[in-house]
Write a structure and sequence with these properties.
alpha/beta, D-Maltodextrin-Binding Protein, domain 2, 2 domains, 6-stranded mixed sheet, 14% strand
């Protein structure tokens, strides 16, 4: 009798799951073999089948038995991956409903700020790191402190340390790291080989490459618009060193009196005057920067790991592309790398059941099984040792390089937008020769002082 009752329950559960899965196109993807496999696992009464899917639910072999709904705001470019993962997750945990809403980058930034001010934040939301983004919600005491959970569940082994560091504020883990990347120098291997040049390990070697390329009528760096700041940021790290650079970015050091700030602006101006950048770089659209490397007009561009998938998507010869760390260190030390992490944050007001359900979802999302089944998940992930998809293989080794060298938060994520607007304008003025590099720091410090006064 017990066996007959169990069979009836299983049949009803499977029917409910199949009906729920018909609610969206994403729910039907890759599902033909799943119900049969689930039934086999249930009949054989093997708890390990659930544990393999990342389920740690308390009693051995028991599924999450509470009805829970979680609202989630995610970017539009995650839509395909998120919907597929949510659909497959629902087959394992039919009682957990993930209601996802997708926004563009600008809209998700704006809408979460509005929701924060009105007390209507979703249960989970996608975010970027740094002062302007993740830190904002933590400082306002609006997001869940993940520190205890992370410690109890071995996040120090699951995620790259440098990625977790970028999710930490005042000793608290304020976000779950999803995607992790850094700004490195992508270069055309064939162009460097043509002139007998090797990958630089020091700042002096990098400048030597630029000089050789210039002598042969070849631009060194692609850049344009706000993208120019990526080079200035690296120069600030080189001249200021980690301690002072961090103090500048946290607005604790005085930009106006910093010799390193003057040196960085002067070097940027020098590179522009020498023709190391592409023609018209000051007014060029920043989004076009990498195209000059693809076309061979320039040899290098500072960009993130997305460059790898762009090379593959455009069917360029992958053997002609590689990357190295911009040498920001001295005495043979590579130096830290500008990095940023894309994250998910959780509403501080989640119930215990909601939080448990949310962690089950993200455990599944970045499980080995899920990463293999859903190649559209954005990469590189912050998961330690995760294998890159074929489209991202060109970026293999980047995260390990960043983890070994150390990182600092990309400046425009850490410095308030009101101040960054002045930094961009000052940078352009220096390059156009309307102000001297020695005056740049004072202009920026004025904006910092005004920001601090307005914030009191």
């Amino acid at each position: 009798m017990k066996r007959r009752i169990l069979s009836c329950i299983l049949a009803l559960t499977m029917a409910a799951s199949l009906l729920a899965g018909c609610g969206s196109d994403a729910g039907n993807a890759n599902s033909s073999a799943e119900p049969e496999a689930a039934a086999d696992a249930a009949q054989e009464d093997e708890p390990a089948a659930e544990e393999d899917a990342g389920n740690e639910t308390g009693e051995e072999g028991e599924k999450f038995d509470k009805e829970v709904t979680l609202t989630f705001w995610s970017p539009t470019w995650h839509k395909d991956a998120d919907e597929q993962v949510i659909a497959d997750f629902a087959k394992i945990y039919p009682n957990i409903k993930i209601e996802a809403t997708f926004y563009s980058s600008d809209d998700i930034k704006t809408n979460t700020k509005v929701a924060a001010s009105s007390g209507t934040l979703p249960d989970m939301w996608y975010n970027w790191g740094g002062f302007n983004y993740a830190n904002y919600y933590a400082s306002a005491d609006l997001c869940y402190d993940l520190s205890s959970y992370a410690k109890e569940n071995g996040w120090e082994d699951k995620y790259l340390k440098s990625a977790l560091d970028l999710c930490t504020l005042d000793g608290k883990i304020i976000a779950l790291p999803q995607v992790y990347t850094g700004l490195v120098m992508w270069y055309r291997t064939d162009i460097l080989e043509q002139y007998g040049l090797e990958v630089p390990k020091t700042f002096e070697e990098l400048e030597n490459i630029c000089e050789v390329l210039k002598e042969n009528g070849q631009a060194s760096f692609s850049t344009g618009g706000w993208h120019i700041f990526r080079y200035l940021e690296a120069l600030l790290e080189y001249y200021a060193g980690p301690e002072e650079h961090d103090a500048l970015n946290t607005l604790e050091a005085d930009w106006g009196s910093s010799e390193a700030v003057t040196q960085a602006f002067a070097k940027l101006k020098e590179w522009g005057d020498k023709g190391y950048f592409i023609d018209g770089y000051v007014t060029e659209d920043a989004n076009n920067a990498k195209m000059y490397v693809f076309g061979g007009t320039s040899a290098m561009v500072m960009d993130n790991s997305g460059m790898a998938s762009d090379v593959v998507a455009n069917e360029y010869d992958t053997s002609q592309y590689s990357f190295f760390a911009f040498p920001t260190g001295k005495d043979g030390n590579t130096g830290r790398i500008s990095s940023y992490v894309k994250t998910t944050q959780f509403n501080k007001n989640l119930t215990e059941d909601q939080f448990e359900a949310a962690m089950l979802f993200w455990d599944y999302y970045y499980s080995e099984e899920s990463l293999k089944s859903h190649p559209s998940i954005e990469q590189p992930t912050a998961v330690a040792g995760a294998e890159l998809s074929e489209a991202m293989k060109l970026a293999d080794g980047m995260l390990e390089m960043i983890d070994a060298a150390g990182s600092y938060t990309t400046t425009d994520q850490d410095v308030p937008n009101e101040i960054m607007d002045v930094v961009f304008a000052t940078e352009e003025a220096v390059l156009l020769g309307t102000i001297e590099p020695s005056a740049a720091g004072a202009e920026i410090q004025k904006a910092i002082d005004a920001y601090k006064a307005a914030s009191k």
